[in-house]
UniProtKB/TrEMBL annotation:
Subcellular location: Cell membrane; Membrane
Name of the molecule in the record: SURF1-like protein
Membrane topology according to the record: Multi-pass membrane protein
PROSITE patterns: SURF1 (PS50895)
Source organism, top-level taxon: Bacteria
Keyword Transmembrane helix (UniProt): yes
Chief place where the protein resides: membrane
Transmembrane regions: 12-32, 210-232
Keywords for the protein's UniProt record, in alphabetical order: Cell membrane, Membrane, Transmembrane, Transmembrane helix
């Protein structure tokens, strides 16, 4: 009876270990899948970057592949409604990203001109120089995601320039009192620009996903080896006990 209970406990433990190993292997395979997705995405970006940008009005806004697509369009910035995105860090320096609603042939779109350093006083926003005339814009599409951990402090009664804490487009439409295209255009880098534009198309490179996959596979292998050693040792003890009995 005692041996039966012991075998039952061992079976439960073995099931738990097996489930953990399967989970770790699954996580490793998922990381490999993410690595392949990132590689395809980087190849797509590299291919698109060598081509002329598509017209902003021709974008399929319902597509899942909008991020980092190069675009171009003619528009005129509304400099009466400058927006500063707070707490942006570039090279260890705190600053802001400057966003401007730009009027084009099919409405208005928010354009990210890039990063500028903060002034010595939090009460004073930097003075920026932007061409007010109609011009050709070149950049890439960014699809901002709202961070639920960040609280927006800007109110519709606040004066412009407006200071915001995150890129929440529905909230910005209220603050700007206008309808926006549901993407942000990050302008291409220019040597003579006063704005820093170090846009990173992919947050995590494929190599990191591969490293994480290897870690999960190593953990699964280690768990399997330890489990085999433990259960083999237990099995020999049970056989010895049955022989003595």
């Amino acid at each position: 009876m005692l041996l039966t209970r012991t075998y039952l406990k061992s079976a439960v433990a073995a099931s738990g270990v097996l489930a953990a190993i399967i989970t770790m292997v699954g996580l490793g395979l998922w990381q490999l899948q993410r690595m392949q997705q990132k590689e395809l995405r980087l190849n797509s970006i590299a291919e698109l970057s060598g081509q002329q940008g598509v017209a902003l009005s021709a974008l399929n806004l319902k597509s899942d592949l909008l991020q980092d697509v190069p675009v171009q369009f003619v528009g005129q910035p509304d400099l009466n409604r400058l927006v500063f995105l707070d707490n942006r860090i570039e090279g260890g320096v705190v600053g802001y990203e400057v966003l401007v609603p730009v009027v084009f042939e099919h409405g208005q779109v928010l354009v990210n001109y890039g990063w500028v350093a903060a002034t010595q006083s939090r009460q004073q926003l930097p003075v920026v120089s932007i061409d007010p005339g109609e011009q050709m814009y070149h950049g890439v599409v960014s699809v901002p995601q709202r961070n639920p951990l960040v609280s927006e402090t800007a109110q519709s009664t606040d004066p412009f320039p407006l200071l915001i804490q995150q890129l929440d487009l529905p909230k910005l439409e209220v603050l700007l009192e206008t309808e926006l295209v549901p993407v942000v255009i990050q302008l291409s880098a220019q040597k003579d620009s006063a704005f820093v534009r170090n846009w990173q198309p992919v947050v995590m490179p494929p190599e990191k996903h591969f490293a994480y996959a290897v870690q999960w596979f190593v953990l699964a292998m280690a768990a399997a080896i330890v489990a085999l050693l433990v259960f083999f040792s237990k099995g020999r003890q049970y056989d010895s006990s049955e022989y003595k009995s």
